Amino acid sequence: MSFACPVCRFPGLEEAPYDEHGCASFDICPCCGTQFGYDDATTGHSELRARWIAGGKRWWSEKGPPADWGAETQLAQIGE
Ligand SMILES: [Zn+2]
């Protein structure tokens, strides 16, 4: 089971960013670097996404992205 990031739509999060009660996981998205419950407590997801895009859509984690990762593919899933 994996979950999508509400900011960048990276689909490989190991934990849900928010559980059914609305509690944040406090995990950090390896793609955009958003910490759920912290970064998005003061800044909306669409604003965080806009910043990530403006910053060049870079992969955040030192571990590096999956072989099939592509920011454009991910962003195409955002229907906003
Ligand atoms: Zn993300």
Radius of gyration, whole Å: 12 Å
**Strand residue percentage:** under 5%
Q: Distance between the terminal alpha carbons, to the nearest Å?
A: 25 Å
Shape: globular
Oligomer state of the chains in this structure: single chain
Summed over residues and divided by their number, the pLDDT gives a mean of 94
**Largest sheet features:** none
Secondary-structure element pattern, one letter each: HHH
Discrete helix count: 3
Structural class of the helices, strands and pairings? mainly alpha
Number of strands: 0
DSSP helix fraction = 10-25%
Name every ligand kind in the structure. Answer: zinc ion
Count of individual domains: 1
Poorly predicted residue ranges: none
Fill in the keyword field for this structure.
single chain; 80 residues; mainly alpha; 3 helices; binds zinc ion
Q: Summarize this, please?
A:
By secondary structure, the protein is mainly α. It has helices spanning 39-42, 45-54, 71-75. The protein contains three helices and no strands.
